[in-house]
Automatic annotation (TrEMBL), chain A:
The gene is pcaH. It comes from Flavobacterium franklandianum. InterPro entries: Intradiol_dOase_C, Intradiol_dOase_core, Intradiol_RC_Dioxygenase, PCDO_beta_N, Protocat_dOase_b. Coiled coil: none annotated. This is Protocatechuate 3,4-dioxygenase subunit beta. Belongs to the intradiol ring-cleavage dioxygenase family.
């Protein structure tokens, strides 16, 4: 069981399943205790993505959906490093991102927020980490948007992230926020994270990553669950 | 195929895990773009692409229910299986089927070390701050199921929540987030 425990979600950091202020959790959070599982071959492995051919513009959301011009909004470039809990880099792992446009509107058909769509912005992309676990993508800074959780509820600016690592237990879906956002204080999704973890979800503005006359630079480093940096032989 | 779990027990962890956040309601155009008919190539689909003539193709199909027994229309399910022979990673959202089914076509996994065959499902949705892991076992594997150490560690009255029932042409596997029939979820 010790291997299992070392790789579990850290309850001092991670949100709990049920968080009453985020009302959708009330009917959707598991109510019974999770069963501890001794990892089998299946849990000790995960999908590898080295055979995937990413499109040349997959990591540039400012260009990957252009129809008749450039998307509207503030161009940003996001850099980061993906490591495990020992700080070892996680190379060649897939990162998928999706987000609202600069006006706070998602392309998704279910989003009915009365803000304009941008014909030149889809708001999704992906990249792989390099051999040292580093990644980079270009996008437009997403806008805040209202949601129905409570009266006058607004989501802070955020980019959704999906990551894998090399076991299914290192799977992570998270959201990257921006420094100084006044909405963070009122957002139950962000506040559901334990105090020790909250800062880790806020990207840092970095002048050194900022590209002159082009895009503001932000850094967002990510720590995946687990200790094992060596991909298992699973092909 | 030897597997070596290289965990150095003497080293303490140095980094704090990045916290999990919900997938939210709007993942469709990014994570399951072709299924949701958006103009962005999907890397991950719900059908296995390995062609092996000796293999037994199966379909796993089901719905996800919330605490009031309503089907959930904005969940994303991922499937991962690895029996040492066939590996498959699939993904499907419950928002495109009129009845909010998810469906996977894969190859039936084989038994590893005399344990019952299974696939892993990972469940993501608005209202889940952390994703949930479960396993799909198969109703027509009675002998292996009866001696499986994981199934036997589950209280008998809950064991059936993770055994897919063989129906005409598919295995049906419904997921209940809460309530009397709450699906067994695992800490992985
Ligand atoms: Fe969002």
């Amino acid at each position: 069981m010790s291997d299992l425990m070392e790789n579990s979600f850290d309850i001092e950091v991670q949100p709990s399943h049920l968080y009453l202020a985020y009302t959708s959790t009330i009917l959707r959070a598991p109510s019974k205790p999770l069963l501890l599982l001794k990892k089998s071959l299946t849990e000790k492995t995960g999908p590898l993505f080295e055979d995937f051919n990413l499109g040349i513009l997959d990591n540039d959301l400012t260009k990957n959906a252009i129809k008749n011009g450039e998307p509207i909004g503030e161009r940003i470039v996001v850099h980061g490093k993906v490591v495990n809990e020992k700080g070892q880099p996680m190379p060649h792992t897939l990162i998928e991102i999706w987000q609202a446009n600069a006006a706070g509107r998602y392309v998704h058909k279910v989003d009915q927020h009365d803000a304009p769509l941008d014909p030149n912005f889809l708001g999704t992309g992906r990249c792989m980490t390099d051999s040292e676990g580093n990644y980079r993508f270009y996008t437009i800074k997403p806008g805040a948007y209202p949601w129905g959780n409570h009266h006058n509820a607004w989501r802070p600016n955020h980019i959704h992230f999906s990551l894998f690592g090399n076991e299914i237990s290192s799977r992570l879906i998270t959201q990257m926020y921006f420094p100084g956002d006044p909405l963070l204080e009122y957002d139950p999704i962000y506040q559901a994270v334990k105090a020790k973890g909250r800062e880790l979800l806020i990207s840092k503005f970095d002048l050194n990553l900022t590209e002159p006359d082009f895009a503001l630079g932000y850094r967002f480093d990510i720590v995946l669950r687990g200790h094992n940096a060596t991909p298992f032989e699973n092909r | 195929m030897p597997l070596h779990l290289k965990i150095d027990k003497t080293m303490n962890t140095t980094k704090t895990q990045t916290p999990s956040q919900t997938v939210g309601p709007y993942f469709g155009y990014g994570l399951t773009s072709e299924q949701y008919l958006y103009d962005f190539k999907s890397l991950i689909t719900n059908k296995i692409t390995i062609l092996d003539s000796n293999s037994d193709y199966i379909t796993i199909k089901g719905k996800i229910f919330d605490g009031e027994n309503n089907p959930i229309s904005d969940a994303m399910i991922e499937l991962w299986q690895n029996d040492g022979h066939n590996r498959f990673f699939g993904r499907f959202g419950t928002g495109t089927d009129a009845e909010n089914h998810f469906v996977f076509q894969t190859i039936k996994p084989k038994s590893v070390e005399n344990q019952a065959p299974f696939v892993t499902l990972i469940v993501f949705m608005r209202g889940q701050l952390i994703h949930s892991y479960t396993r799909v076992y198969f109703s027509d594997e009675e002998v292996l199921n009866a001696q499986d150490t994981v199934l036997n560690a589950i209280p008998a009255e809950r064991r059936n929540t993770i055994i897919a029932q063989k129906k005409a042409g598919c295995y049906e596997f419904n997921i209940y987030m809460q309530g009397e029939n709450e699906t067994v979820f695992f800490a992985v």
